[in-house]
Design goal:
The structure holds 2 protein chains of 2 kinds.
Chain A: E1 14-19, H1 23-35, E2 40-46, H2 49-58, E3 63-66, H3 75-84, E4 92-97, H4 102-110, E5 115-118, H5 123-138
Parallel strand pairs in A: 1-2, 1-3, 3-4, 4-5
Helix pairs in contact in A: 1-5, 2-3
Chain B: H1 3-8, H2 11-30, E1 34-36, H3 39-52, E2 58-67, E3 71-78, H4 79-89, H5 100-122, E4 128-130, E5 134-137, E6 153-161, E7 164-172
Helix pairs in contact in B: 2-5, 4-5
Classes of the chains: A alpha/beta, B alpha+beta.
C-alpha cells in the first residue's frame, strides 16, 4: 500500500478521489473539477466508501469529495475510517451531499471535514473549493 | 400527519418548501426555471408531450426517506424531460443518445436532490436518511392525468420545467 501524501505543493498536480454512488454525479464532479484552473493530476472514482478506502490505500490522493448517502459504506463511515489513520491526516475532506441539516454538519465538523457543499451546487462552487485548497496550500 | 411531522412545519409550509426545493434544484443544477402549473395546464402539457416527442413514455423516480418522519418523494416526468435533465447536467449535446442506465441514474439523482433539498428545509434540526432512488419506466398506456392520489399522499405539486410537465408527490409512511 502506498501512503497518501500530504497536500499538493503549489505546482504539484492534485490527485482527487470522487466518492458517490451516482455515476451521473461522479461524471458531473469530474467535469467541474476539470474546469478549475489548477494542475489536476489523477481523478479517481468510487461508488461507495469501501471502494474509496481501497483506492486511498493504494494511490496517492490529496483531496476526497464524498457523498453521504451511499450503499455498502456511507460517507460518514468513510470519514470515520479516514480519521483513524495517521497517514491520511492531511487529506482534504469535502462533503457533497443533499443533506444540509445542522446536525449532519456538526457531525462532519467532528470528523475534521474541511468543506461541506450542499447539492444542488453551482459548478463555480466546486471550482472555488479547489482554488481555496490551492491557495491554502501555497501559504 | 404524525405529530413529529406537524411539529416541524404546517401543511402550507410543506408545500412552500417543496416548491422552493424544486426551484433551487432547477436553477442551481440545471439553470432552468420551474413554473408551478394547475391540473389543467399539466394535462395540456402532458397531451402536447405525446405529440412532440420521439420518447413519448413516462418515468417515475422515487426516493424513500426515514427520520423525524418517514415517507417518499415520487416524481413523474416524460422520458424526454429525463433525457434533457441528464444531458443538461453533464453539459452534453441535447440530441445525444444515453444508455438507459445513465438516464435512470441521472433522473434518480434529480429526485435525490429534490428530496434532500426539501427535507433540509423541512427540519434543519432533524436528521433524515435517504434511500437509493428507484427509477422505473411506466407502461406505454399509462397516463399521469387523472391518476388517483392514494391514501397516504401528503401533498402533490405540478410544475412545468423546460416546457415539459412534471408531478411531484410526497407520500407519508
Amino acid at each position: 500500500m502506498s501512503e497518501t501524501s500530504g497536500a499538493a505543493g503549489a505546482n504539484k498536480p492534485l490527485n482527487i478521489l470522487i466518492v458517490d454512488d451516482s455515476a451521473t454525479m461522479r461524471a458531473l464532479l469530474h467535469r467541474v473539477i476539470g474546469l478549475a484552473d489548477l494542475p489536476i493530476g489523477r481523478i479517481y472514482q468510487a461508488p461507495n466508501g469501501l471502494e474509496a478506502l481501497k483506492i486511498l490505500e493504494s494511490c496517492s490522493v490529496q483531496a476526497v469529495f464524498t457523498d453521504l448517502n451511499m450503499p455498502v459504506m456511507n460517507g460518514m463511515e468513510l470519514l470515520r475510517e479516514i480519521a483513524k489513520r495517521d497517514a491520511w491526516k492531511d487529506l482534504l475532506r469535502i462533503i457533497i451531499s443533499t443533506d444540509g441539516s445542522k446536525l449532519r454538519r456538526d457531525e462532519a465538523r467532528e470528523l475534521n471535514v474541511d468543506l461541506y457543499v450542499e447539492k444542488p451546487f453551482r459548478p463555480e462552487v466546486v471550482r472555488d473549493v479547489l482554488c481555496q485548497i490551492a491557495t491554502a496550500d501555497a501559504h | 400527519m404524525s405529530s413529529a411531522k406537524s411539529q416541524l412545519l404546517t401543511p402550507t409550509d410543506l408545500h412552500d418548501t417543496l416548491q422552493a426545493a424544486l426551484i433551487e434544484v432547477g436553477e442551481n443544477a440545471y439553470f432552468v426555471f420551474v413554473e408551478p402549473c394547475d391540473a389543467g395546464a399539466f394535462a395540456t402539457l402532458a397531451e402536447q408531450e405525446r405529440d412532440k416527442s420521439s420518447r413519448p413514455g413516462w418515468l417515475m423516480a422515487s426516493v424513500r426517506f426515514t427520520g423525524a418522519f418517514s415517507g417518499s418523494v415520487e416524481i413523474v416526468l416524460p422520458e424526454r424531460l429525463g433525457h434533457w435533465l441528464v444531458t443538461s447536467l453533464l453539459g452534453m449535446p441535447p440530441e445525444e443518445d444515453l444508455p438507459e442506465t445513465q438516464m435512470f441514474d441521472g433522473v434518480g439523482e434529480f429526485a435525490n436532490m429534490v428530496c434532500g433539498a426539501w427535507l433540509s428545509r423541512v427540519g434543519d434540526q432533524a436528521l433524515f436518511e435517504l434511500k437509493m432512488p428507484a427509477v422505473t419506466r411506466m407502461a406505454s398506456e399509462w397516463n399521469p392525468v387523472g391518476e388517483g392520489r392514494g391514501r397516504e399522499e401528503l401533498m402533490c405539486r405540478m410544475v412545468s420545467l423546460n416546457d415539459s410537465p412534471m408531478r411531484i408527490r410526497v407520500r407519508a409512511q
